[in-house]
Give the backbone structure.
Amino acid sequence: MGARPTQNNWSVDGADNVDRGANLTLLTYPSVDSIEEFRVVRGQYDAEYGRSSSGQINVITRSGTSAFHGSLYEFLRNDVLNANSFFNNHNSISRPPLRYNDFGGTFGGPIFIPGVYNSDKKKTFFFFSEEVRRVLTNSPFDPILPSETNLNGTFQQPVCLNTSCSQTGTQISPGQFNSGAAAYIKDIYSKLKLPAVENTDGTGVDSPFVARNTFNLHQEILKIDHIFSPKFALMGRFENDTIPTIEPGGLFTASALPGVATTSTNSPGRQFTIRATSTFTPSLVNEAGYNYSYGGVTSDPTGLGASKNSLDVVSAITLPFAAQVPRVPNLSFNDSEGLFGFGSYRDFNRNHNFFDNVSHTHGKHTFRRLSEVRKCWSRKRGNIWLRRYRSRWKRNSRSGMGQFPPWKCDFVHADEC
């Protein structure tokens, strides 16, 4: 379509599923086995669409039926089934371990008590889905590192012995080390696997290694459908998922220093939807309901660069301002890998949506009207974004010839800061 990804709108059973902070990432990820169907609308949108100018993607989850049905599954990947990569073989690195297990199940059917409630199994139904993933992968890194002799003050080429560089030499006594430098060596660099000696020209040594990534997911979906009468039905759905991960190079950073910028992250998501469908006449149908969506990203440094793991650096480095992040200051070098990290990071998103959708068929035409109250609350380090209310009418020709909105009204539009 030529539009940007941030102009798409994603929903699950009509509930908003987009992080309004980035306007790109999703809040929850329904299990594939819980999906009944999905619909992608590229143009000529109905009245219930309109927040975004690009694709409208709506996922419909499965419901229970009058008979019990269930399923179990397991998807497996393992390094014993894989070949090693060209670059690993070139650098004499063995095939990295891979563990990918995606397992779960679904179960649905009627809710009834024989002889007491719903004996004919035509009123109340449930559907439950659970998915678990346990994934261990490994990523190659290729940093340029100093040598162990450098940490002891010995260098292949002359280095400056004072700030003005009026004196040079190839040996610095550890007793002359700056207190901050000594703290970084003690807390971080002495714990790394370093080459014994640097290159003869004094530059750092290329030191490839492989580090482990951890990705775990746990998700549950529960959906209840109740039919009061042929003219009135009610649906409720709850979804909850957590995605704890460990990033050896740090979230958003990919630092190549082994074990230094490691972060521990979790991305919880939660959705609650309730929807009532009323059929007043064969030509007049009303849908009303409430959607709540929540998503978050919480990440904290856990590697050697975290303040709690480098107490000597924290005490040795005095900053002109109060530290805002729980990690040590970054370091930059001309000929070796710099020291940097990421976090802590907090991103929360909450969406509330009340809606009422009326459809009326008259002759060859269908009229649809949506009244909606939507509040989107997103916080990234303390920022609140937007709140919007919208009402829209749209007329739809059954023959498909020229859907068009006679009018559109944004009657209230306010921003919170």
Observations:
- The first helix runs from residue 86 to 90.
- The chain has one domain: 5-143+208-305+341-415.
- Residues 5-143+208-305+341-415 form one domain.
- Confidence is low (pLDDT under 50) at residues 382-417.
